[in-house]
Specification:
Layout lengths: L3 H10 L5 H9 L8 E5 L2 E13 L2 E10 L6 H5 L8 E10 L8 E13 L7 E2 L6 E4 L5 E11 L2 E11 L12 E12 L16 E8 L7 E13 L2 E4 L6 E6 L4 E4 L3
Antiparallel strand pairs: 1-2, 2-3, 3-4, 4-5, 6-8, 7-8, 8-9, 9-10, 11-12, 12-13, 12-14, 14-15
Length: 262
């Protein structure tokens, strides 16, 4: 157990596990130490995102890995990926070691499958220009929103991919700790397909600012305040304001965040 001020300083100073170490911690397959390599049956594991955080007086680092489907025959190996071909998310979580320890991080646990996302056998791309957002629930769960983007019909779509971490019983292999909770929209940019000189193909760019709102002891509500512009009809662009905000709530039966009923 650390003091709060200690954790922030130690997390900032600690070098996180390498992508190869994260993949190896999950599958016990060292590979070549790179951030992406084949694990088994044609499946390729690729380091996707890592995040260090403090929770209940302890420091953690979690590395997320995106894994392509296994392929058992030549037809599967030769087939082109489709928009429906998602990747499986796995994770390895490490705990911050005490000052003076030989290694900064000690392995805690890993999970082979915490959800699926992406398309064309690729995970959603990380948006390095936006920062991850976090929230801790009253009952001690940790929520992580990772900024991502993807392309759809020539339009860049910004989003946040959502995860929840339950730190209870980390040594129990039968307890689910990390869960992928889907994604929420956070803006669009049609700059690659618009024409500022053509009234029928106007340019529009919207931005979403995510915030968490307490919801009892449960996972929080998510509010996305929208700004910028949006195409509302052929050749018509509208400026966004407070009325265009998006709201999402966690739906337990689906184990995902979904738009709140308006």
């Amino acid at each position: 157990m650390f003091f709060m001020s200690e954790i922030a300083n130690l997390l900032a100073a600690a070098t996180p596990p390498t992508p190869g170490e994260v993949i190896n911690a999950i599958h016990d397959i060292a590979g070549d130490g790179s951030a992406s390599y084949e694990i088994e049956n044609g499946s390729v594991a690729t380091f996707w995102f890592g995040h260090a955080f403090e929770l209940d007086g302890a420091g953690y680092y979690t590395g997320f890995v995106a894994e392509t489907p296994e392929k058992y025959n030549d037809a599967e190996k030769d087939a082109d990926p489709t928009p429906d071909t998602q990747v499986t998310l796995s994770q390895a979580t490490f705990s911050l070691a005490q000052p003076g320890a030989a290694r900064s991080w000690g392995f805690e646990m890993a999970e082979f499958s915490i959800g699926k996302f992406g398309a064309f056998e690729r995970g959603n791309a990380i948006d390095d220009k936006r920062k991850p957002q976090t929230y801790t629930t009253p009952d001690g769960k940790f929520v992580l929103a990772v900024p991502t983007w993807s392309l759809s019909g020539g339009v860049r779509v910004d989003a946040y991919d959502l995860f929840a971490f339950d730190p209870a019983d980390l040594t129990d292999p039968n307890t689910t700790h990390w869960t992928y909770l889907g994604s929420v929209a956070a803006g669009e940019d049609n700059g690659a397909s618009c024409d500022e000189d053509d009234d029928q193909q106007p340019c529009a760019r919207s931005f979403g600012a995510l915030s968490f709102e307490p919801h009892g002891d449960d996972l929080p509500l998510i509010h996305v305040a929208m700004s910028g512009t949006r195409i509302v009809a052929a050749g018509k662009v509208r400026t966004l304001g407070p009325a265009d905000a998006l709201e999402y709530r966690y739906v337990a039966t689906e184990n995902q965040y979904q738009p709140s009923a308006q």
